[in-house]
Each structure stands twice: as structure tokens, then as C-alpha cells.
Specification:
Strand content: 15-25%
Distance between the termini: 41 Å
Structural class: alpha+beta
Number of strands: 4
Order of helices and strands: EHEEHE
CATH class of one domain: Alpha Beta
Strand order of the largest sheet: 1-4
Mean pLDDT: 89
Low-confidence stretches: none
Shape: elongated
């Protein structure tokens, strides 16, 4: 059975991940309601698969930021509304 993915929300934010701070625990991935975070295929300098932002669909909710146990590993920015 194939998984049905819901359409991505209109981008209202963006996620920046400090790759070398991320330990690949996956908490941000599990908690993201929009499912726009994944584990990277490559390793960071500490040997972990860091989280990675897919590039669109972030609503800027900040749940990933609060789920992350590493201070400063994730930064969520709200985008300016386009008029």
C-alpha cells in the first residue's frame, strides 16, 4: 500500500539546521506537522546523519525548534507576508 502524502502548506517559514550541531536524533522529524524534515544521507563531522530541510512547506510553527534537545541546532524563521 502506498502512502498518500497531503499537499504541502503554503510556505510561511524556513528552517535552518546547523549540521555540525545536529546529532540525528530525529525528534524534529517526528514532531514536524508538515513533514518537511528528513535525515540527510551524508554524515556531519561528528559522524551523525543530521536533519535536513526539504526546502519548502515550512509554516514557521517552531515545533522542530522546541523538540530539538541541542540548543542552537535549529533556527526557524518566519517569512514576511507577500502582499
Amino acid at each position: 500500500m502506498t502512502e498518500v502524502r497531503k499537499p504541502r502548506a503554503k510556505p510561511r517559514g524556513t528552517v535552518e539546521i546547523r549540521v555540525d550541531e545536529c546529532k540525528g536524533c530525529g525528534y524534529c522529524i517526528v514532531e514536524c506537522p508538515q513533514k518537511v524534515l528528513v535525515l540527510a544521507k551524508g554524515f556531519n563531522r561528528m559522524g551523525y546523519h543530521p536533519s535536513e530541510y526539504l526546502g519548502d512547506g515550512c509554516t514557521g510553527c517552531g515545533i522542530c525548534f522546541y523538540a530539538c534537545p541541542e540548543p542552537g541546532a535549529i533556527l526557524v524563521r518566519k517569512l514576511e507576508p507577500v502582499s
